[in-house]
Amino acid sequence: MSSAPSWWRHRGPRAWLLWPLSLLFAAVVRIRRRMFAAGVLRASRLPVPVVVIGNLIAGGAGKTPLTLHLARELSRLGWHPLIVTRGHGGSASSPREVGSSDDAAQCGDEALLLARRSGVPVWTGRARAAAAAAGLAAHPECNVVLCDDGLQHYALVRDIEIVVFDRRGIMNGFHLPAGPLREPMSRLSAVDAVVLNGTAHAPPGGAAVFRMTLHGELFERLDDRSVRCMAEGLAGLRLHAVAGIGEPARFFDHLRMLGLAVVEHPFPDHHAYSAADLEFADCDAILLTEKDAVKCHGLSDIPMWVLPVEAHLDPDLAAVISVRLTEWMNGPPSS
């Protein structure tokens, strides 16, 4: 199963049964946001600008590849980003820096992937403001914070908000638990940019819209990432594909687009894999997403191949953010 229940896609009996609870959830969300805005609940401002990447629905929509893209592109433009994330799936709750050799069970799969791929410091913590403060103290050269999946974390003051949508959109449009919405669609009127992952449709709202496409064609052997091959090198093999991401079908569709026939194995988002999960009969190779790969090393004797992906943005979102950051540096907010 994926992280989003199939019945979230429609306003069926189960969704309507939970609809009263969704109204309560929406009311609590609205009151909480107003309390932060009024100063009743305290929010921390950092000494550097904060860019938040998030979404309105529960589950992944492509935030992590977007965060990787922005970290690299902003670095290329002369900025020194620090990435802060909750560390979903990890056991650690207090602020900590994530190293490339850390255990995903402690720091979380996305955090470990970010640490290995971004080339910038990555810190995790349940309280993002505390994690960011600790990260800035350890890395005083950092002059911008990228907060992965922090849209609803109002305890951290943000200067730029980016919302990501994938092709699922808002599904049935109900709030949790009757549907996937964490916040109402009216929230889009306050964000700075909307990023559409793949074939996602633009939602109503006044924010600037950017199109993101994920490109990946070169597979890497999990036990030796220097060994690589194109899809043609795997054609004809009995392939099983594993995906424990927000929408596993996105990975399987990508493999089919590359011309590969695979047996699909969707798992819940942030799934903690065991050897039993990868026991496949009639299998010559297992294909993994990067997010899953950080948790699967050594779990199977079957050859495992990872497919790294790179995000491409149109127009150039990093350039737009860089201009905003420069404006912030010339006159940062006082509150």
Structure overview:
The protein has 335 residues and is α/β, with parallel strands linked by helices. The chain has two domains: 22-214 and 312-330, P-loop containing nucleotide triphosphate hydrolases (Rossmann fold, 3-Layer(aba) Sandwich), CATH 3.40.50; 219-308, Rossmann fold (3-Layer(aba) Sandwich), CATH 3.40.50. 27% of the residues lie in helices and 21% in strands. The chain has helices spanning 13-38, 63-76, 104-107, 109-117, 128-138, 248-257, 290-293, 317-330; strands at residues 50-54, 81-85, 96-97, 122-124, 144-148, 160-165, 193-197, 208-215, 219-221, 224-229, 239-243, 262-266, 285-289, 304-307, 310-314. It has a nine-stranded mixed β-sheet with strand order 3-4-2-5-1-6-7-8-15, sandwiched between helices. The chain has a six-stranded mixed β-sheet with strand order 10-9-14-13-11-12. Strand 13 (285-289), helix 7 (290-293) and strand 14 form a beta-alpha-beta unit. The relative contact order is 0.17.
- Quote the CATH topology of the largest domain: Rossmann fold
Domain module count = 2
Count of distinct strands = 15
Order of helices and strands: HEHEEHHEHEEEEEEEHEEHEEH
What is the chains' assembly state? single chain
The stretches of 5 or more residues where confidence is low (pLDDT under 50) are none
What's the shape?
Answer: globular
By DSSP (H or I, 4+ residues per run), the number of helices equals: 8
CATH architectural arrangement of the largest domain: 3-Layer(aba) Sandwich
Structural class: alpha/beta
Distance between the termini: 44 Å
| Physical arrangement of strands within the biggest beta sheet | 3-4-2-5-1-6-7-8-15
CATH class of the largest domain: Alpha Beta
Kindly estimate the percentage of residues that lie in beta strands according to DSSP.
15-25%
CATH superfamily of the largest domain: P-loop containing nucleotide triphosphate hydrolases
What's the mean pLDDT score?
94
What is the share of helical residues? 25-40%
Q: Quick one: biggest sheet?
A: 9 strands, mixed
Rg over C-alpha atoms, rounded to the nearest angstrom: 20 Å
